[in-house]
Amino acid sequence: MSNSNVRPASMERITTPELAKAFIDEQVKALRAQIGSKKVLLALSGGVDSSVVAALLIKAVGQQLVAVHVNHGLLRKGEPEQVIRVFRDEFKANLVYVDAVDRFLDKLAGVADPEQKRKIIGAEFIRVFEEEARKQEGISFLAQGTIYPDILESGPVKSHHNVGGLPEDLDFELVEPVKLLFKDEVRVVGKELGLPDNMVYRQPFPGPGLGVRCTGAITRDRLNALREADAILREEFDKNGLAGKVWQYFTIVPDYKSTGIKDGRRCWDWPVIIRAVNTRDAMSATIEEIPYSILNHITERIITEVPGVNRVLYDLTPKPTGTIEWE
Ligand code: XMP
Predict the structure, then answer these.
(1) CA 179 → CA 87, 152, 154, distances in Å?
(2) Is the minimum distance from the CB of 324 to ligand 1 under 6 angstroms?
(3) Tell me, what's the pLDDT at 160?
(4) Architecture of domain 213-314
(5) Using CA atoms, how far apart are residues 80 and 46, in angstroms rounded to an integer?
(6) Where are the domains of the chain?
């Protein structure tokens, strides 16, 4: 495997199943040559990049891969279950599932500052992963889902998916089989590896997860409202053919309430804010025009199905001035 971080000009763009298959065959050979009979560790978030790396490694070295899925409590509805179903049940991977929900939420309790929240999530993630790494014997390699834009930008995005910052005694040799690929190529490879469509074509999801969409100090009941509202939005976007058309769409539940009326009584509940944006590079973004009838239906579902919510708002702000996420 090339250790260069530069994509050769001669490298063909992977756009077809045939090209994906050739890439997979070549990587499987290279991974076997690099890893031999040793063990490799991977933080498997369930996002497309780490999932493709996991599937490649399972094909190349099978049970020598130890995939660790950390549930930090800020994942979307159904995500940890899907990781277990796909990788443990279907791909027969050696998967370690870590339920760290209480650890993360306890650490985050009362913390309102967005940067502080991100730091806590990132640091705790490394700590949990490090603990799991120490429980494993004979690990020699650390696999990462680095992709080419990460190398080109090497910005803050993904700062906590990529498990940099491990202590020296856990300083494994890196395995980065998709580091020269662009996102669309990773998706073609993922499809060819047999990963489900909703994993392969999933919208970007920030490392700190729902944490940046449950603004201010996170509480479990507000986080639960956020997760349910997000699931309704995703379901309706899927059903109405918007999922493939809109780059990123999600809900936010801010840390303030407003008055409303439910069952003839005044209530004091949270609003849910819907954000749906299109962009090429996430540096600027425009607002998707969603048919009014769909917005209306989503609103109706959220205010009747999600506990603690009495209003739904649609964020019309482009980037700039609003960033895509609210924190
Ligand atoms: P903003 O909010 O800056 O987001 O307009 C641009 C893109 O980056 C994603 N994002 C993150 N991804 N860790 C991540 O892995 C983060 O801390 C983070 N913050 C924002 C955001 O979802 C959008 O796609």
Answers:
(1) 22, 10, 12
(2) yes
(3) 45
(4) 2-Layer Sandwich (3.30)
(5) 8
(6) 17-200, 213-314
Residue ranges of alpha helices (H) inside 84-176 are: 101-108, 114-135, 148-153
Amino acid at residue number 80? P
- Position 207 pLDDT exceeds 80: yes
The model carries a pTM of: 0.94
Q: How far apart are CA 212 and CA 74, in angstroms?
A: 9
For every residue of 43-75, DSSP letters joined together read: E--SSHHHHHHHHHHHHHHGGGEEEEEEE-S-S
Pocket test for ligand 1, best of 252, 325, 326, 327 (most atoms within 8 A of CB): 325
Q: How many Å separate Cα 54 from the centre of its chain?
A: 14
pLDDT at 288 over 50: yes
17-200, CATH topology level: Rossmann fold (3.40.50)
Closest-CA residue to 1 (of 154, 180, 145): 180
Which residue in this structure is represented by tokens 């891969």? 65
